[in-house]
């Protein structure tokens, strides 16, 4: 790990003027620009052209996580505003899908804004669901290293926590937009294929896709499959240490159906292109999950430095890893992987499945920029310079990129 850990984050810095950050989305999703880089060749295209730029036998992997209204704003009787940002469920269940189905009470790990003004006591927030008033209460249970455990309860026991956040919460748009969420964000900060509730940030590479684009992809012979990674607030956490060795990746929940494993295995010799860094980290995590299972681990968990510290098995190919996972699931009568990943993909990482990437532009000195560099090398700087010089829009609501390394032959 020493070589990877010694990477200086300053080498992945660039000047991003505020006027280059897209504060609002385009009216039409697929009208965004597309920076197309094949090898070291860079050109400006339109996202609508994506079906003509991908190899016909490509397999695209979408992340079907759904952004939830995770920001809850309470007001104390003193007038102080307390913001509670729901991160992940703790009680009575820690599975995201089941957690949103729960009735009162529930306990979640949360960030608390203006916490110094909330020493103790119960906060209350009144809302209306199906025409009936509902009072949501929040109470501190414990303080953690990062955040708090908060118990939520409400006075209508027929209402689920999903309904509570839907009607009481706000869309957690990225902090760098420097504005409050608006009504249009509820729709636009969500992919059209979002299905599984659990993210506090959108997998933004998918925001450009329309039903028309997906239909055109399929007509061109491009195949599509889906998995889930619930994006956590840590996705916005910058690398503040001089080298990445001291940066701690956040844990994110992943769900991968056995049908998706089989599809990827069937396409193992064709281009596999994740839509977004979340999809890339998920499919790459599969290899390390399989290797750890083979070595005696009992859970689907990938730690930050696993690819750089685990003893490698030269006979353990990418295809064999998928076969191993599929066999394990079938033997144990399990229909999907439910696990966690903290995978750090940085320059020097050897990709096991991904052969290209569809993504947005990322913040300076971020782990997402390290991931892009791991795929296309130092040419990331040329790509970003090109984008800055040609009025591309940056970050979550900005334009898109299609990165295809030299080894990928277009057909």
Tell me about this structure:
By secondary structure, this protein is of the alpha/beta class. The protein has 2 domains: 2-67 and 189-404, QueA-like (3-Layer(aba) Sandwich), CATH 3.40.1780; 71-169, no CATH class. Helices cover 25% and strands 26% of the residues. It is built from 12 helices and 18 strands. The strands form 4 sheets. The chain has a 6-stranded mixed β-sheet with strand order 14-3-12-13-16-15, covered by helices on one side. It has a 6-stranded antiparallel β-sheet with strand order 5-6-7-10-9-8, covered by helices on one side. Helix 7 (258-266) packs antiparallel against helix 10. The longest helix is centred in the last third of the chain and has 18 residues, at 277-294. The relative contact order is 0.20. The mean pLDDT is 93.
Give a brief rundown of this model.
Strand 1 and strand 2 form a beta hairpin. The longest helix is centred in the last third of the chain and has 18 residues, at 277-294. This protein has helices at 2-5, 50-53, 96-101, 161-168, 185-188, 211-219, 258-266, 277-294, 306-309, 318-331, 367-376, 379-389, and strands at 33-38, 41-46, 59-63, 65-67, 71-75, 81-91, 106-113, 122-129, 132-143, 148-154, 196-199, 223-229, 252-257, 272-274, 301-302, 336-341, 357-360, 400-404.
């Amino acid at each position: 790990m020493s070589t990877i850990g010694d990477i200086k984050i300053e080498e992945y810095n660039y000047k991003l003027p505020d006027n280059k950050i897209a504060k609002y989305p385009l009216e039409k999703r697929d009208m965004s620009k597309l920076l197309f880089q094949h090898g070291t060749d860079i050109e400006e295209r339109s996202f609508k052209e994506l079906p003509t730029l991908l190899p016909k036998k490509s397999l695209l992997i979408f992340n079907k996580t759904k952004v939830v209204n995770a920001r809850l704003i309470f007001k104390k009787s003193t007038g102080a505003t307390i913001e509670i940002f729901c991160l992940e469920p703790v009680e009575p269940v820690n599975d995201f899908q089941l957690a949103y189905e729960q009735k009162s009470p529930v306990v979640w790990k949360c960030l608390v804004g203006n916490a110094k003004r909330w020493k103790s006591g119960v906060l209350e927030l009144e809302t209306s669901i199906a025409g009936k008033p509902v009072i949501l209460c929040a109470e501190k249970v414990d303080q953690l290293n990062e955040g708090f455990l908060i118990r939520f309860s409400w006075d209508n026991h027929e209402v689920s926590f999903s309904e509570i956040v839907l009607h009481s919460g706000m869309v957690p748009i990225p902090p760098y937009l420097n504005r409050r969420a608006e009504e249009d964000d509820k729709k636009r900060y969500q992919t059209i294929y979002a299905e599984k509730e659990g993210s506090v940030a959108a997998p933004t590479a998918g925001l450009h896709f329309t039903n028309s684009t997906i239909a055109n992809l399929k007509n061109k012979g491009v195949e599509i499959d889906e998995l889930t990674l619930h994006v956590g607030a840590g996705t916005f956490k910058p690398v503040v240490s001089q080298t990445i060795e001291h940066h701690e990746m956040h844990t994110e929940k992943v769900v991968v159906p056995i049908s998706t494993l089989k599809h990827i295995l069937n396409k193992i010799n064709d281009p596999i292109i994740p839509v977004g860094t979340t999809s890339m980290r998920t499919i790459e995590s599969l290899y390390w999950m399989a290797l750890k299972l083979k070595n005696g681990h009992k859970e689907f968990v990938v730690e930050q430095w696993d690819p750089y510290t685990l003893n490698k098995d030269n006979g353990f190919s990418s295809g064999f890893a998928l076969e191993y996972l599929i066999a394990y699931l079938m033997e144990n009568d399990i229909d999907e992987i439910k696990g966690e990943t903290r995978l750090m993909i940085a320059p020097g990482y050897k990709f096991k499945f991904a052969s290209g990437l569809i993504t947005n532009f990322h913040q300076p000195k971020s782990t997402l920029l390290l991931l892009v560099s791991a795929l296309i090398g130092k040419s990331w700087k040329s790509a970003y310079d090109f984008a800055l010089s040609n009025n591309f829009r940056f970050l979550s609501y900005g334009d898109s990129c299609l990165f295809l390394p030299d080894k990928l032959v277009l057909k």
